[in-house]
Amino acid sequence: MKKINVVAAIIQCGEEILCVRRGPSKFNYISERYEFPGGKIEVDETKDNAIIREIKEELHLDIHGPTYFNTVDHQYPDFQITMHSFICLIDHKNITLTEHIDQQWLKIDELNNLDWAAADIPIVQKLQAEYIKG
Ligand SMILES: Nc1nc2c([nH]c(=O)n2[C@@H]2O[C@H](COP(=O)(O)OP(=O)(O)OP(=O)(O)O)[C@@H](O)[C@H]2O)c(=O)[nH]1
Questions:
Q1: What would the pLDDT profile of 29-67 be if each residue is shown by its tens digit?
Q2: Interface pTM, i.e. ipTM
Q3: What CATH superfamily is the domain 2-133?
């Protein structure tokens, strides 16, 4: 079974978090699902550098000092993913979608309104648990 290592950015601006929608895929379970922007870690690349590079490529956005949030291991029918998420703060919402088909800026308690890729559910749940705790 193919294994991939992915980084994902929880991009926060004020109280809102950026959620992006993947385009059509041959795998129906990720096709047009919402996810956090990011992508595969390249050989010899640090996770921090991978997240900075992916966000620059995908959103034309510079982020600084990503802060580690969690790691999710998830088995999809055709591949296994290990995804490391990072909280990234920015001070403006000027992004350009180069790969995704929609963007939504949502408050943490609104994140359930979206149809997420399954691997993202533990991230959403942890964000909500920490938000409730304060
Ligand atoms: N970026 C990202 N990928 C995710 C998330 N959740 C999730 O299941 N994935 C899956 O992880 C994989 C990431 O691959 P990708 O296509 O984004 O990576 P990439 O930009 O490096 O792609 P490339 O292969 O075209 O160079 C996809 O299969 C995607 O569906 C998420 O929150 N963010």
A1: 999 999 999 999 999 999 999 999 999 999 999 998 899
A2: 0.94
A3: Nucleoside Triphosphate Pyrophosphohydrolase (3.90.79.10)
| Both structure tokens of 40 | 């595969």
Query: pLDDT per residue over 83-119, tens digit each?
Result: 999 999 897 899 999 999 999 999 999 999 999 999 9
Residues with CB under 6 Å of ligand 1 are 4, 6, 8, 30, 35-36, 38-40, 81, 83, 117, 119-120
CA 12 to ligand 1 center in whole angstroms: 20
pTM higher than 0.90? yes
Alpha carbon nearest to ligand 1 atom 24, residue: 40
Q: Which two tokens stand for residue 54?
A: 């992916």
Domain layout of the chain by residue ranges: 2-133
